Amino acid sequence: MTAPRILILAFACALALPAIPANARNKVTGAQQQDTAPGQNKPAPAAPAASLPDPAAHALPNIKWPAPTLGADETFAKREGAHFENMFETWQISGFLEDGAGRPLDFTVLFSKTGPVMMLLRHGFASLNGPDGYRFVSFAPENVRRAAEEELKQLLQADPGNKAIEERIAILQSGQSPEFFVIGDEARVLRNSLAINYGPFTLNRVDEKQLLWKLTADIHGRALDLNLAGFRDPIQFYQPYIKVGSRGSLDGYVFPVVTVDGAIADPGGGTASLRGHAIMTHLWGAVDAAGFRRYTIIGMNFDNGLFLQTFRFYSPQGVIVNEYTVVQEPLAEPRLAPEFSLEETGSWTSGLSGIKYPDKWAVSGAGFDGELTLDGREHEMSIAGGRGAFYLGPCSYSGTIPGKKGEARGRGFCRLVAPQP
């Protein structure tokens, strides 16, 4: 397989994105590109706010976990950085916040790196859901915007006169798409330390001795500036690795809880303080496309302090190819839970992308017996106009869990990828 073809496949697999033409590669030694196009930060109408319960309903219990030990660990610092030998890599920070007035928000920033080092493609997504609605933005080099435009043109050729496609093409051509932010070739990610700088979207380790990070993002002119702190040591996924298909595997780790404080600035110049907590996940490896075109990844904290992380990789026909679940009970070591079961019991079809997503699951095994549901259907993101879409948003659980008598509740984030029709 040629290097260009490998890059196309890696990009397509990363989030079930549509294949990108060979001329859309983002070579490290390419021409300098503009960080922004005129009008890109122009605020756009938002979807109504979704899934914004009282933050106290899912507040974390006050458990005094042992202080993290990996802050000054050089080996872990290198694991935080980019792994250029691997075709696939993502860093995801998803959390629940409230502002100074007690109003809840949820957010996600997802950084991706795909392809071999000499044809590295840097891209990502960010979303914000608050009292003034849900918004998302994808960020990538100009050549990805052009590739998305070309794909929409091909769709228009197959469906002449489709007004929705014509409008999406016009927005992309105008350089004023609120849902696509162009980052330049100067966007960088480092190997031996966590330092991601994709224009206004950044994630950097800021202390060599402590697990402290700075996260920034610009979502339709709403600028997040957040300080993150590791609450406890991460759960690491290398004993064993996460299998993907028959030949692929993922390494990585998850911080079940990072504390968050900072601020958000709105397009009018106002600012508000923010506080809350987030889940931070870093995955990398070589993926087998046969088991990576459809998947479900869930990270969730529960009201007794338990944390659950589960991965499900499916064939395009919906048959489970691989599954991996880890559970960490309060003040205990994490353990694998192969008996954990997640059965899809409900679904919905997106009007934006046409993708059919699960939205309800029956949960059983490993001490669980209950139901998991998406909190809403608004948290879908895409490259442009629904192309390359996936779902990443809050989800909730009710039922029994290990280590607690009676009803338990949990809240976390579901990342859902399925083939696009």
3D structure, described in words:
Helices cover 11% and strands 46% of the residues. With 421 residues, it is mainly beta. The chain has two domains: 64-141 and 183-289, AttH-like fold; 293-421, Beta Barrel (AttH-like fold), CATH 2.40.370. A hairpin with a 2-residue loop joins strand 20 and strand 21. Helix 3 (142-158) packs antiparallel against helix 4 (163-174). The model is unreliable at 1-44 (pLDDT under 50).
What general outline do the C-alpha atoms trace? globular
Output the CATH homologous superfamily of the largest domain.
AttH-like domain
CATH architecture of the largest domain: Beta Barrel
Poorly predicted regions: 1-44
- Tally of structural domains: 2
How many helices? Answer: 4
CATH topology of the largest domain: AttH-like fold
Beta-strand content estimate? over 45%
CATH class categorisation of the largest domain: Mainly Beta
SSE order in H/E notation? HHEEEEHHEEEEEEEEEEEEEEEEEEEE
Q: Give the biggest beta sheet.
A: 14 strands, mixed
Radius of gyration: 20 Å
Q: How far apart lie the N and C ends?
A: 26 Å
Helix percent band:
10-25%
Structural class, by secondary structure, is mainly beta
Strand elements, count: 24
- What's the mean pLDDT score? 84
